[in-house]
Structure formats: C-alpha cells, structure tokens
Structure to design on (257 residues):
C-alpha cells in the first residue's frame, strides 16, 4: 500500500493503470505483483486503511489524494466521511485543470531516497528549503509553545500547503498559519519569512508539476543543473566562479555550458 500512497502524495492525481505500470517496473521479478497490489488496494480501501481514493470515470480510473477527493465530493455537496472507496463519476473542473497543468511534464517517480524515509512527506521535510524554515521557527518559538514540538508542527502544516505551489493568497495563508500558532513577526522579519516561504514553495514537489518542484522544472527547461543555497534559494553562480559541483573547474567549463 505504501507505494500507491506515496505516488499519490507526490503527484496528487494519477491514472490507476499508470500506477500499476510503475509498480510493475519497480518489482519486475514478481509476476503476481500487479494483481496482488490491486487486491490489497481494494481490500485496504474497503477497510479505510489507505489515504488514496479511486475515481472511476468513463475514460479511465484515477487515484486521488484524499484532499482532492474531499474537494471532489464538496463540489457535489457531500463530505469525505461519506466517500466510498471507489467513487464513480466524472472529473470536476478543478481536477481537469490540475491534469491540464500536469500535461507535458513527465511524471516524477519515487526514488530510493524517498522510500528510505518514513514517507514522501518526511522526505520533503528534510529538503533544504524545509530545513531552513524549520530552523527559523525553532529559533522563534513563542513563550507559551512547546519548544520541542513547535517548529515541527508548524512546518508540517506549511509543507502540506506548499504542495500546491505559490498561488494567489498563499502568502496570506502562510502568515495566518504563523499567527494561529502564536507567532506574529515584526516588520524586520517579514521579508525573510516571505523568502523562506517562496523557497519552500519553489523547492518542494508540487502537484501541478506532476511531482517536480518549480525549481526542478526550471532546470529541466534550461538543460542546466541548478544549485541551491543551504536555505533553499537558487544559487547565483558567475561564469568564472568555481562550479558548485566541486569539480574544481570554472562554472562555464562545467555545468554552466
């Protein structure tokens, strides 16, 4: 079940046949793997043991992250608690728009590094932009908050929201989340926090990019490797500077070609 949940966590919505094919590639020596996955998934959905839902449309079947299924059901005047493991219907405009944004972007597959963590979500929280934001929060714990859990709790909320990328109103949500958790920044901290939030949204996988971060999409479009500062922003490297990869060559002779 973990394979399915992690793919859906990474990309939000994915065609069911596509997930089965990726699973087959991941376990090529197990001829019964796909059927076993299907049977286990159906059983888990019936017992509500999996956070992904199956939406069966006339064209194809899709696996949806539970948040997308909640939006789907809200559009129909229903609640997630009333959801069936397998919902039958047609794509809503929101789901169609998300699929359209994913078009032309090769789906990001799970990596050994992701699977080595407890979850893809745990892997996201260990990436440089997330670590940078956590460090800031850890250094600014409100007096009444639990110093041990505070930064992790707030980062979890913010990382979860960042999977949509930077959207209209997201900065407002960011500061509302901080205030809700007892931290009201002063004027000298606002720009730093905005930079940290922007780096988080640009540096982590987002659903509209089919599991790639905006920074990764930018790097793939330019056919150049992107390098990042410890706090998660793109590193600006001069053509005659040493290449950040550590080769000892000038950037223009190495990854800057």
């Amino acid at each position: 079940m973990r394979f399915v949940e992690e793919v859906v966590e990474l990309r939000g919505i994915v065609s069911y046949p596509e997930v089965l094919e990726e699973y087959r590639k991941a376990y090529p020596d197990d001829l019964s793997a796909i059927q076993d996955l299907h049977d286990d998934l159906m059983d888990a959905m019936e017992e509500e043991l999996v956070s992904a839902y199956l939406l069966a449309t006339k064209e194809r079947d899709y696996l949806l992250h539970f948040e997308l299924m909640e939006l789907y059901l809200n559009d129909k005047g229903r609640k997630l608690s009333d959801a069936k493991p397998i919902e039958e219907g047609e794509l809503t405009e929101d789901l169609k728009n998300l699929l359209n944004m994913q078009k032309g972007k090769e789906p990001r597959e799970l990596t050994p590094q992701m699977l080595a963590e407890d979850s893809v979500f745990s892997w996201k929280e260990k990436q440089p932009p997330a670590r940078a934001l956590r460090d800031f929060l850890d250094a600014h714990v409100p007096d009444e908050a639990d110093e041990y859990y505070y930064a992790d709790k707030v980062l979890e909320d913010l990382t979860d929201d960042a999977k949509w990328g930077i959207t209209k109103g997201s900065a407002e949500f960011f500061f509302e989340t901080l205030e809700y958790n007892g931290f009201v920044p002063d004027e000298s901290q606002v720009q730093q926090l905005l930079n940290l939030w922007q780096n988080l949204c640009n540096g982590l996988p987002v659903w509209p990019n089919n599991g790639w971060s905006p920074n990764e999409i930018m790097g793939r479009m330019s056919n150049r490797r992107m390098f990042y500062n410890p706090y998660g922003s793109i590193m600006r490297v001069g053509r005659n500077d040493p290449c950040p990869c550590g080769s000892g060559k000038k950037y223009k002779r190495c990854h800057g070609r």
User: Anything to note?
Assistant: The chain has a mean pLDDT of 87.
